[in-house]
Amino acid sequence: MKLVFYGAGNMAHAIFTGIVNSNVVKSENIYLTNRSNEDALKKHAEELGVQYSYDDEALLKDADYVFLGTKPYDFDNLADRIRPHINEDNRFISIMAGLPISYIQEQLGTSNPIARIMPNTNAHVGHSVTGISFSNNFGPKSKEEVHELINAFGSVIEVPEDQLHQVTAITGSGPAFLYHVFEQYVTAGTRLGLEKSQVEESIRNLIIGTSKMIERSELGMDQLRKNITSKGGTTQAGLDALSQYDIESIFEDCLKAAVDRSVELASQDDDDDDDD
Ligand SMILES: NC(=O)c1ccc[n+]([C@@H]2O[C@H](COP(=O)([O-])OP(=O)(O)OC[C@H]3O[C@@H](n4cnc5c(N)ncnc54)[C@H](OP(=O)(O)O)[C@@H]3O)[C@@H](O)[C@H]2O)c1
Q1: Which of 89, 129, 134, 264 is the most exposed place for a label (fewest CB within 10 A)?
Q2: Which UniProt keywords apply (predicted)?
């Protein structure tokens, strides 16, 4: 299998590093290109054994999967660059937030299969939760191959394209929401009188340990919580205090705002396209 990455920036780097490390595709069959930063490509090639080139004809020849990894506003230029060289072997995987499959197909001037993925920043540690939607003409074997590629840097959730907004909110922005909650926990912990550095270090390890419990246990989070909550104990007292607040509706508001903003940004893209 031959992979080509158009754009080798922050997110693409996490993706091709995960794919190389998991050995799903041999590094010599992974090709990178970008706009002009050849030093970055050289560095990736030296570190990972991948190839790089600016020869679009050669890059796209026999390319099974072509990752589109530029910023959304750079995509029109990218489409102009590759349109003349697209051939029937090429299936596309867009990592660009907000650009619909129909728009990508239109700009590329092709009806070749296209998948849209929404990874999150945890791809850098091989733990992205990646939303994916496929164009209707994506075959079952190709879908399986794409799932395997994505599993190389985390897990996959396949949804219809119009639900990628929800995935963007829940898992795309999700790490930031959780960081924010953890920040408040650190601040509150510090107010109990311990050294700030001690509290920060303890809560870091608390989060890592709790994540590993979730990962390794077959129990749901509700059961894990119940298992450490004795009637009349300290945990019960803390949870009772928490239950005075409607935490569920706070998170509902948070996620709804993120979904609404995702829809709004996508419709702005549409408007911009209309203006062109
Ligand atoms: N970062 C995240 O957490 C995240 C999460 C989900 C989705 N995404 C999506 O990932 C995409 C990339 O984001 P990023 O943060 O990785 O951006 P980035 O670090 O700025 O990387 C952009 C890459 O695109 C290349 N590029 C620009 N124009 C090009 C062209 N015409 N032909 C070929 N390559 C071109 C750049 O090359 P040069 O360096 O040579 O200019 C660079 O390698 C975005 O569309 C974003 O929506 C990112």
Answers
A1: 264
A2: Amino-acid biosynthesis, Cytoplasm, NADP, Oxidoreductase, Proline biosynthesis
Total domains, the chain? 2
Q: What burial class does residue 212 get, using C-beta atoms within 10 Å of its C-beta: 0-12 exposed, 13-18 middle, 19+ buried?
A: exposed
Instruction: State whether the beta carbon of 104 lies less than 6 angstroms from ligand 1.
Output: no
Pocket test for ligand 1, best of 74, 117, 132, 157 (most atoms within 8 A of CB): 74
The answer to whether position 254 is within a domain reads no
Q: Which of 276, 257, 275, 268 is nearest to 97 (CA)?
A: 268
Read off the amino acid at residue 210.
T
- Measured from the CB, is residue 15 less than 6 Å from ligand 1? no
Same domain, 149 and 179: no
Report the predicted TM-score, pTM, of the whole model to 2 decimal places: 0.91
Asked if 94 and 219 sit in the same domain, the reply is: no
Q: Which atom of ligand 1 is nearest to the CA of 97?
A: 47
225-235 confidence digits (pLDDT tens):
999 999 999 99
- Rounded-to-integer distance, Cα 181 and Cα 194, Å: 19
